[in-house]
Specification:
Helices cover about 35% and strands about 25% of the residues. The chain is of the alpha+beta class. A hairpin with a 6-residue loop joins strand 1 and strand 2. Helix 2 packs across helix 3, helix 3 runs antiparallel to helix 4 and helix 4 packs across helix 7. The protein is globular and about 60 Å long.
Length: about 290
């Protein structure tokens, strides 16, 4: 078949094609597994077990799809995190967002023939693959898929609202705080800790996403740590006071100094380096969030 796909098998008595990309390992699952991933009871679609789906496995750094390539499928993240991005003519990579468990990638394939953006795995990951040509045919036979698409579209709209909220902040520290609060909530929805975050993205990715220089991200991590909101050790971030961080994230001032009521704490050494903190703001993220 074209585009590097090959037919695995047909859906039971339905002629629904299940595809795999030759470049990635695959596992066979059913639509019922996808329903459960999206928080939908499989009992809502009793026949879901009869409809096979492919789960594709990717290693860290592997592309899920490339910008400008033919849109063959939409993808539901089961394990891992992905980065979505677009590339400017001068080669600059603009990071548009990060997708985790239960979130969808390539949804624009439904209304367009090519992917306007690219997506790459930030860690070893797995995704359910739903070929575009099967979406509507399968949706007509299994009502549960309609609910999956509605949930996926709703989550994607919510993410875009989150991005707009981040970009509305003037101060870089507030942008970073909003990003971390949102990431905390998304990790909680995945059943992970809301306070201990392992950042899969580099500081350059975060900077591109927030629309600031990567040095500014380093200083902002340092400020939030110095004010007692965070503890940072390389890519490990512990939110010390989530409620206070949320309150700070609601700040709308253009310039942020030391927040009222926060005791400014100087660290004796930057974690992981052994050197003394020299300036008014520690910069753990210069080490912490390094690529």
């Amino acid at each position: 078949m074209s585009h590097g796909f090959e037919l695995l098998h047909q859906g039971k008595d339905q002629g629904i094609s299940v595809l795999q990309r030759r470049s990635g390992a695959v596992e066979r699952h059913s639509l019922a597994d996808l329903l459960r991933l999206m928080g939908i009871e499989a009992s809502a679609a009793p026949d879901a077990e009869a409809y096979p789906l492919t789960m594709r496995q990717l290693h860290a750094g592997a592309p899920l799809f490339h910008e400008g390539t033919a849109a063959e499928a939409i993808y539901f993240v089961s394990v891992g995190m992905f980065k979505s991005f677009s590339t400017a003519e001068d080669g600059y990579e603009q990071v548009l967002g990060f997708s985790a468990r239960g979130e969808v990638l390539g949804l624009d394939a439904i209304c367009g023939s090519h992917h306007p953006t690219g997506a790459v795995a930030l860690e070893d990951a797995r995704v359910f693959v739903v070929p575009v040509r099967d979406v509507f045919a399968l949706g007509n036979r299994v009502p549960g898929l309609d609910r999956v698409l509605h949930v996926a579209a709703s989550r994607q709209l919510a993410q875009r609202g989150d991005i707009a909220d981040v970009m509305a902040a003037v101060a870089a520290e507030v942008r970073l705080a909003r990003f971390l609060v949102q990431l905390s909530a998304r990790m909680g929805a995945c059943g992970q800790s809301t306070r201990r975050l392992l950042l899969r993205m580099s500081r350059r990715d975060i900077a591109s996403h927030l629309g600031v220089a990567h040095e500014t991200v380093s200083r902002s991590f340092g400020a939030l740590a110095d004010w007692g909101y965070l503890r940072v050790n390389y890519r490990e971030v512990e939110i010390c006071d989530l409620d206070a961080l949320k309150a700070f994230a609601r700040c709308t001032r253009g310039l942020v100094e030391e927040p009222p009521g926060r005791t400014r704490r100087r660290l004796a050494a930057v974690q992981g380096t052994g050197r003394r903190a020299a300036g008014p703001l520690i910069e753990p993220a210069a080490v912490v969030a390094a690529a």
